[in-house]
Amino acid sequence: MNISEEFLLGKKIGVAMSGGVDSSTVAALFKTAGANVTGLYMKNWSDPRDCRGVDDRADALKVALKLGIPFHVFDFEKEYREKVIDYFYQEYESGRTPNPDIMCNKEIKFKIFLDEALKLGLDYIATGHYAGVRKIFLNHPELVSGSKEIPKQVRNDIFRIRPDKYELVAGIDQTKDQSYFLYTFTQEQLARVLLPLGNFYKKEIREIAKTLGVPVHAKPDSQGICFVGEVKIREFLSRRLPKKTGEIKDLKGKVLGTHDGIYFYTLGQREGLKIGGGIPYYVVDKKVRENILVVAPLNQEDKLYSKSLTARDTHWVSGVEPEFPLKVKARIRHLQALQDAVVNKITKDRIQVEFEKDQRAISPGQSVVLYAKNVVLGGGIIS
């Protein structure tokens, strides 16, 4: 167990249970450690065309019954549609490629859900994210939520010392680390959130789940859009965005074909262009106003690369803007290897990021997330 049992004993903790192995194992571990655990389930999407919600809710309830813990259901479908799904469609229609998981965490899981859960009288909520929360005790950093060992001197004072701040840290399992999706955390939120899986590997969690008799220990990992599930993005977009035929041109302006809607394509995409000639082409630009998709052949793939980006809606986890220029590690997509970069301020909520090496397919709408070693500093939405 990677959180002190002394810390957990008697604490009222609501576990966000998705019906999957990760959150179910968190609930089982906390229950075993003596915490007063409540299972919390969010009903956010119920479209029968793609929803896995019925099965997931049943699995979450099955785990709660197995553990003998209360089970509470929140219905945030209206809020989820307005804050996440509407945003998703609006961004795609504007030619950008949004990240709905980041918006879901920001607007639903750690905002509306956190607020409503705490109204139940809980001390904390916990999730099955592969990341950790680090509390700084009088300038002595130590993982409380995401560390397998806590020194005795810290453990003994854990209830008496007022923490100065909190840090969000990446999970050690580099194939599962979810810190990229969590950079919008505030200090107030981190103070009430436990992320116990930060120092575990996925295979360890499955083994623990099996040992503890968690009913879903062998359930496959979920894929796709947060709470919606695994869907074909083009099909999902087509439900709201109409066919809008336009031209596909090369870098010299030669027309190579037509497309059904610029929002169905992302930078770097190769599949689905339907351009003949036997030469692979990649999307290198989207001219939204002219409704033109610009492509380049494989031997001109360098057009996809850039060392610089600007980002808007900048957020700093510490709540304090750093000094610039700022040397960081950065990534522009989930699980990308961390890249050396320098950040400069443009305005209060806009930054420029200069990478040491060229980056492929920097996509407006996605997020750039900034790190100092394994600590998430913050990030912003790529312009």
TrEMBL record:
Catalytic residues at C104, C226
Q: What is the official name of this protein in its record?
A: tRNA-specific 2-thiouridylase MnmA
The residues covered by the tRNA-specific 2-thiouridylase MnmA-like C-terminal domain are 307-382
Q: Which reaction does it catalyse?
A: S-sulfanyl-L-cysteinyl-[protein] + uridine(34) in tRNA + AH2 + ATP = 2-thiouridine(34) in tRNA + L-cysteinyl-[protein] + A + AMP + diphosphate + H(+)
Instruction: Report which superkingdom the organism of origin falls in.
Output: Bacteria
Task: Fetch the NCBIfam families from UniProt.
Answer: PRK00143.1
Briefly state the protein's biological role: Catalyzes the 2-thiolation of uridine at the wobble position (U34) of tRNA, leading to the formation of s(2)U34.
Outline the segment boundaries, as ranges, of region: Interaction with tRNA.
176-178
Q: Which GO terms describe its cellular component?
A: cytoplasm
Every copy of the tRNA-specific 2-thiouridylase MnmA-like central domain together lies at 235-296
Q: Which organism is it from?
A: Candidatus Woykebacteria bacterium RIFCSPHIGHO2_02_FULL_43_16b
Where, subcellularly, is it found? Cytoplasm
Molecular functions per Gene Ontology: ATP binding; tRNA binding; tRNA-uridine 2-sulfurtransferase activity
Q: Where is this region: Interaction with target base in tRNA?
A: 99-101
Show which residues form the site (Interaction with tRNA).
H129, Q366
RNA-binding in keyword set: yes
Q: What is its main location?
A: cytoplasm
Q: Which family does it belong to?
A: Belongs to the MnmA/TRMU family.
Keyword set includes Nucleotide-binding: yes
